[in-house]
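Exercise 3.2. Students should predict the tertiary structure of the chain below and write it as structure tokens, then compare their answer with the key that follows.

Predict this chain's 3D structure.
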Amino acid sequence: MLRKATREDIQTIWKMQVEAFTDLLDKYQDYGTSPANESLEKIIAKYEQPWTTYYYIMSDDIVVGAVRIVNKNDGSRKRISPIWIMAEFRNKGYAQQAMIELEKIYGSDNWCLDTILQETGNLHLYEKMGYVRTGVVEHINEKMDIVFYEK
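Answer key:
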């Protein structure tokens, strides 16, 4: 289900991320925060952080998405940032299964993530997975807000 990405995978990960988030960027115009607007250099820099791991989300031998995990191993919360499923594979349970697999690897507690408040499908998934809103909401623009979760 999850396959750790290598340095050689990073350009593919970046292209997938841009494609997966472009619809949201078009919808919300959040050029400063959207993963669709991140440069390849920024993704490479994140990959090279010792606390970052990227995984492909797999279905059989097909890549259906990807996820970045931030785990500093210092007692701070582990972070999912971002997770995405490619458009043609959405709403089939892949993100939920990936999150279950991540919890098997990293443990099921002390996580955090954030998402777009206006994307109710995301809210439903994370709440179903046991995440609870922190109460913090960051206003990005007139179209969107970011809501923060912990588990």
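Discussion points: Residues 137 and 147 are 5 Å apart (CA to CA). The chain has a mean pLDDT of 97.
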